[in-house]
Specification:
alpha/beta, 252 residues, globular, Spore Coat Polysaccharide Biosynthesis Protein SpsA, Chain A
């Protein structure tokens, strides 16, 4: 199997770490390495992670890094790109987790020299999002065209596996803004090959403290950056954003 690094940024994520660590223990096969990066948390995240990294029963190298000062989402993502060593990198947010114990086995055959991005499906504790993601995933081609909306509808950024050299060439926008992960992926997809796999899934957790749950999120920067893409891309991603906002308003 291709060498995969699993990078996990953590910021005040203590309520989710026990479930995440339990899911990581069940993975078979495991990634080549697991790297946690604590972004100057003020809760006991570091204590919980130190206990996990010291567990001799984990059959993969596990490292725990720490930011002395909070770098924010994009800053932590970009540091993980530099600190990991695998040919492929998945950046899994600490409140998400692989939905199947054989997640990495399900994607192994797709990690080949023909592609630079492998995007997996999602499931969620939010029933409307879960239903839409599972339903519409069947409509997405294996090789989706550049204009096809993926993140937010049928996938989450935590379910993207990047060839690590791609992220060295295309760092995440810092500071991040609402929708910057979509703009980043669109920019990468302009010049790199991508496949979508609907059956391997990442569990995307919707909870009150998540930034995506903020009903007053300002998407001005997102719309501004979206304007540089083709008309079909702008129109479909604008429609996708509107539909997601309507869906979020229904469940509040």
């Amino acid at each position: 199997m291709a060498e995969i690094s699993l990078g996990i940024p953590v910021f005040n994520s203590a309520p989710f770490l026990d479930e995440l660590c339990a899911a990581l223990r069940c993975l078979q096969p495991l990634p080549a390495e697991i790297v946690f990066l604590d972004d100057a948390s003020t809760d006991d995240s570091m204590v919980r992670l130190a206990k996990f990294t010291a567990d001799p029963g984990i059959a993969a190298p596990v490292r725990l890094l720490h930011n002395k000062h909070n770098l924010g989402i994009a800053g932590s993502y970009n540091r993980l790109v530099l600190e990991t060593h695998g040919q492929w990198l998945q950046i899994l947010d600490a409140d998400d987790l692989p939905a199947q114990p054989d997640f990495f086995g399900r994607i192994a055959s797709a990690l080949n020299d023909e592609v630079d991005l492998v995007i997996t499906g999602l499931c969620s504790n939010a029933r409307l999002l879960d239903f839409c993601a599972r339903t519409f995933a069947w409509l997405v081609p294996h090789h989706p065209p550049h204009w096809w909306p993926l993140l937010g509808s049928v996938a989450t950024r935590a379910g993207v596996l990047y060839r690590r050299t791609v992220l060295l060439e295309h760092p995440f926008a810092n500071p991040a803004y609402p929708g910057s992960d979509i703009i980043h992926l669109l920019g990468v997809r302009e010049s790199h090959r991508c496949v979508f796999l609907r059956r391997p899934r990442v569990f995307y957790r919707v909870h009150s403290s998540a930034q995506s749950s903020d009903r007053d999120r300002d998407y001005t920067a997102y719309r501004t950056h979206l304007a540089r893409f083709s008309a079909p891309t702008r129109w479909l991603h604008g429609l996708d954003l509107r539909l997601r906002q309507v869906g979020q308003s229904w469940v509040r």
